[in-house]
Amino acid sequence: MKKLKDKIVSILKNEKGQGMVEYALIIGLVSIVVIAVLVLLGPAISAKFQDIINALK
What we know:
The chain is an all-alpha fold. The protein has 2 helices and no strands.
């Protein structure tokens, strides 16, 4: 019984995956910010590219 308890305690104290979870959360947050910026500035960027295309014609 003690062996089982020790195994469960060691699994609960394992922090190897903590760093990966933190990186995943940071990547998720950065992705959300990038998508929001593209949605907000997308039409303005598209208009600038269209101006450049028109100037080259």
